[in-house]
Fold this sequence. Notes:
There is one protein chain. The protein contains four helices and 64 strands. It is mainly β. Among the domains are: 6-15 and 736-817, Sandwich (Immunoglobulin-like), CATH 2.60.40; 57-144. The strands form 16 sheets. A four-stranded antiparallel sheet has the order 1-58-59-62, with no helix packed on it. A four-stranded antiparallel sheet has the order 4-3-2-57, with no helix packed on it. Strands 5-6-7-8 form a four-stranded antiparallel sheet, with no helix packed on it. A hairpin with a 4-residue loop joins strand 45 (549-555) and strand 46 (560-566). The longest helix has 8 residues, at 736-743. The protein starts with 5 loop residues before the first strand and ends with a strand. Mean pLDDT is 78; it is low at 1-18, 654-661, 678-685, 708-723, 737-753 and 758-763.
Amino acid sequence: xxxxxxxxxxxxxxxxxxxxxxxxxxxxxxxxxxxxxxxxxxxxxxxxxxxxxxxxxxxxxxxxxxxxxxxxxxxxxxxxxxxxxxxxxxxxxxxxxxxxxxxxxxxxxxxxxxxxxxxxxxxxxxxxxxxxxxxxxxxxxxxxxxxxxxxxxxxxxxxxxxxxxxxxxxxxxxxxxxxxxxxxxxxxxxxxxxxxxxxxxxxxxxxxxxxxxxxxxxxxxxxxxxxxxxxxxxxxxxxxxxxxxxxxxxxxxxxxxxxxxxxxxxxxxxxxxxxxxxxxxxxxxxxxxxxxxxxxxxxxxxxxxxxxxxxxxxxxxxxxxxxxxxxxxxxxxxxxxxxxxxxxxxxxxxxxxxxxxxxxxxxxxxxxxxxxxxxxxxxxxxxxxxxxxxxxxxxxxxxxxxxxxxxxxxxxxxxxxxxxxxxxxxxxxxxxxxxxxxxxxxxxxxxxxxxxxxxxxxxxxxxxxxxxxxxxxxxxxxxxxxxxxxxxxxxxxxxxxxxxxxxxxxxxxxxxxxxxxxxxxxxxxxxxxxxxxxxxxxxxxxxxxxxxxxxxxxxxxxxxxxxxxxxxxxxxxxxxxxxxxxxxxxxxxxxxxxxxxxxxxxxxxxxxxxxxxxxxxxxxxxxxxxxxxxxxxxxxxxxxxxxxxxxxxxxxxxxxxxxxxxxxxxxxxxxxxxxxxxxxxxxxxxxxxxxxxxxxxxxxxxxxxxxxxxxxxxxxxxxxxxxxxxxxxxxxxxxxxxxxxxxxxxxxxxxxxxxxxxxxxxxxxxxxxxxxxxxxxxxxxxxxxxxxxxxxxxxxxxxxxxxxxxxxxxxxxxxxxxx
Length: 819
């Protein structure tokens, strides 16, 4: 008898299993500080880093390499790494710094370098052994403002530091790290500029300040023998206003005759830098030669002087290619020459100040960009001006893919499309407007789809994305105004970009999905509720909410929207009834103030999510601004919307910037919530994943995220949303029993009125059913204790559904019995 085999495929229906995963993005995080895309396993509570967004860590502007004694070894920083480099042998060693370096290195002639670094908002001093590059934290809370070794005591460094409104010349004892004040300067200092210069036992330094709104500077001295301070000279450029002249002064060097030199914008209504000199022996100040713009402008770092009495400086702008260059000034002839012009590919403003080699050659660093970021160490002969590249250090090849992620959404096939706020600009990747990207959770393949700046040249702010009913991506981006776009994952085309600007970006103005066809938000700029119609890309203005600022919204059901609102003297929970377009007060949050309550009730903030029992769970925060430190009184609470009772799960207060708070990010129906804490400057609970159990009134830390650094460079809005979002996604992983079935190669055939099944032992408990197209069961059988490979059937020709059930989970697929 002829046997006919029909291969039956089994397809997983995600809706049948209702499995979800928790995914999120951290805006700035991880070892590369560009953000992470991560997932949380709800069963094991483990955090898995799915993708790292790479960013280029800029070195501190103008940082020079520091010579180790009189050797050919130099200490420097690429921004990501501290290195030691020998300019003769090419030997190169590197180590990760303990944070973002601030200012320059200082070598004490005893085999140690000192420097300051910022780690997770905590700025500390460090001591590094220049032989091993091992470092340790030291108890020295002082910035190194171009310090020098005391010419009288080589176990002591001298530096100017700010103490309140006063500048103090301070001695630091390197054995004990104790300090003592030698002299004070009470002028309104803008900044100390250039090095402290020691001439025998007399110290000279220069400071920038403001006099009657004009930029000025003075030169002062301190005599170590007589312990006397003297203000030597003061100069003001009457045409240079404070707001436009912050970086108007550079220097400071001394020639072999004891004359001091620097550079500054000294001539009224002339934007060029001029070399100047001051002779302490006769108190004569002279404005010398101008530095032509074709030689250089926007000087960077300190000047250096060689044994031939030539002064060298570095610039960011000007030069032959308008990317800056190295210039020289001859103190004997008063001539200025262009030594080297940076080429157009060196388009990062990460040039260093200059150093000198033992033979008098000029040493410096600058960056170039192609598909990688390259940090170049170069050498220029001080006589022939011959340029030589000594070493190229390549870093972070993925900045073009975007970094600082802000939002993501899931497609029907489980793939993720997200958006970043930085990177993606071909010419300036660090400052680009961000990217639209696609991520495959199974293969972990990351693909940049487009540069935002190519479509939105003015794009500067964060963004949101949503999946539409057509499986397209609706996105928002912000620059001067708000723009929306529609991206088609199938055609890889940006199909729609709105021509109308709607609202300036603010993190409180975010859209919330109202339904499959619309979004809703409270626009604090217009003080109106708004609805975005996805089909027409039009915004409908709803009811105005008056003189309020709405911080957070939560869709309770299809008719009600819960909002947190602030006014001048209050903070309240309000309900917005969508059909009636009416707002009503639910609770005054000031009624739940804590023991540390401040005077400004609008400072109360409540970040919340809702449980299945209509409990709000979140963090209740009061920010107090009247104390010496900003104090945030914080408690994790549950709030019953029926009884208006607030229960405290834990509480405490901490020194913190008031805008950096933690928030509950996702809730599970089993009584637990996941919470993430945004990094705060003072370090407590920074970057933790927490679990909140409202049934047990408990909260505890589960895991710790990699800590970000350099958070001081971000604005308040970015820091406030350090963890941008957590979302529940349809499972991108197949349930274990599906994987087991696939691995066992379960195959079902219809043949000769029989289902043929090839199965492993562990699925022998599966139940099989066959339904007709009207949904009627026409046959069923079990694999329990069943050893035959064929199950006889007695059904007519037609189309049927074969269903396999295992532990209440289902697989199903159509098959046809032919005539």
